[in-house]
Amino acid sequence: MLFSTDLLIFSPNDVDLNQSPFRRTIQADTYVLGAFNPGLTRLPNGNLLMMIRVAEALKQPIIGAQIHAIRWDAVRGYVLDSYPLVSVDAADPRKFQVLGHPYKVMALTSLSWLLPVELIPDGTRVVTVHYDKIIAPERSYQEYGVEDARITKIDDTYYMTTCSVSSERHSTTLYTSTDGLTYGLRGIILDHQNKDMVFFEGKIDGRFLALTRPLGDLYFATRPDSDYHSGPSINLASSPDGLHWKPSDDPLIRARKGSASTMKIGGGTQPILTDQGWLLLYHGVELRGLVGIYRTFWALLDAADPRNILHWEDRTPILEANLGLTEPLKDQIYLSDVVFTTGIIDAGDLYIVASGECDLACRITHIPKPILTLD
Predict the structure, then answer these.
(1) Does the keyword Secreted apply (predicted)?
(2) Which domain holds residue 99?
(3) SS3 call for 273
């Protein structure tokens, strides 16, 4: 699908690592593995704000017979932990599995922090990179990083959900802001391995609503004649205050047989209210290769009761990875066939959509409204 505006707006080459929080305590050489998966919102001045995940990695994680992981420590700051090479599986450049445990245990050769980048109102040019507003680990439950921001403005407050990664848990954490740029940590709001939590951009009957996506290593079989595959689903939850959440009793969007997203699905953009209902863009994954093929699909939910799906397009994607966009960065690509959409802005006759491209860079796409509208 061709769009009038479809570009990479920010890449690893645009990050100044002299401003990295690592510089405080780590002397090892690092590089930007990816600057991607940006949360997106509009600031009070009319400009856009992307909250970009910067995955900063060790240039040489393996030294001699040891492999090293980056970790944040409350006392020592950023540190390197050493593991014997013979005790790990290091097939993935982003992480390695520590063998000999009764469960699957991973460590990271990179650690993610969040970088606020301000754009002009149509999202096509960078105005300022706010290194003074970096969001980095500050609690033990973030020792392996802060990832994949989603931003939703409700009334006069910006709510930003993130994934916080640690040996304690893999949780969803909340930050809030009154200006869209300076955020304070409010703490954990969803516990272990509940990823892709996204607030709706508005309340229903005075309550917050959010998409969630619980993960696990075990799923039970659907009945043989079911329309759905077993596996992760996008669910609804509600809250009186944005901090305490009650999951809906029923799943919302599941991996449907015959679709192009049978391996994994998860929330993408913050659901926004349109004339036809709540519009959401989400990712679906087709089983192929190391991580699968990530594409962006869409759905419309009833304005008064989002449990009712009015339209669900899971066969023809809105966005797919665009090799032409990443051609100038081809020497830095370590994943292909991945687009991970993470933010949307209503801009009159079109939507401005922000995505992570190939876990490498940030993509801005202008999508005409009729494409995401029922006939």
Answers:
(1) no
(2) 6-372
(3) strand
